[in-house]
Amino acid sequence: MKKFLIRLLLIALPPCLLIMLSLFCWMNGFVDPHYLKFASPKQSSMILGTSRSSLGLCPEVFKENGFAEMYNYSFTIVESPWGEDYFESITRKLDTTRKNGTFILTVDMFSLSCNLDEYGNEILPHTMLNRINNVSQNPNWEYIFKMKVMPWRYFLYVLHLYEPTFELHEDGWYENKRIWDAEVEKQETQLKLAEYAGFSKSVLSKTRFLYLEKTIELLQKYGMVYLVRLPTSEAMYALEETMSPNFDEKIFAIAEQYKVKYINLAGKQSYRTFDGNHIIPEDAKILTQVLCDSIRQVGK
To answer: Per residue in 238-258, pLDDT tens?
Structure first.
């Protein structure tokens, strides 16, 4: 029996190792929209926020402008609204051995809002970030198994049997690979506005603001912190202003309290979007350059 088990192990081991090696080789930015963010090292300079910043801010442009090497650790409105889960994940991702970083904290009313239950209590559901404890492991088996990643998608991509609509770059920038179309933008903007209008029953969350402040306090120990409000379509901006007309005042108050700079780029310039909310890749690079220039203007 012992010899049989040994033989079985010897027979099974090579294909198992081959499968594991294949998983490691195929795990890239075409396979999963988040995996590389958890398979990269700890970071000393980060872009933080939801999908607006995940698609809208390019670390390579910061690098071209002489900033510290940035990493885009933004996710989506579902996964990374400001809150406990995101704060804990940022804490685990932060490289605390360096203290000359740059941190871009993007804010908007949706990432700082929540619904209330019938008793007036804030409803703050846990996100995917709550499930991933190790955010800097490569390969990250915890993420692969918990999130049911399908690494063979890349093999299908090589064979031209799978056409990814995105690429997650090594620096964390999420690039939407769709071709921009003005007419499609109009249609999808209406759908996105209707979706976000569903937040009309939401209120600005005291808890989310608390964790935004906790994040500022944490990151100030390791570098310069900037609060940034990113641009959207005019219609999306108008919706936000209607739903929360005093949003900027609240952010300015936080900026003054913690002595950080608030850069409000909303409504400042027209950028092409896929849906009124997410800026297309070409314009994301222009926007990032505008932000770099704005940071120079406000100074440190």
So the answer is: 999 999 999 999 999 999 999
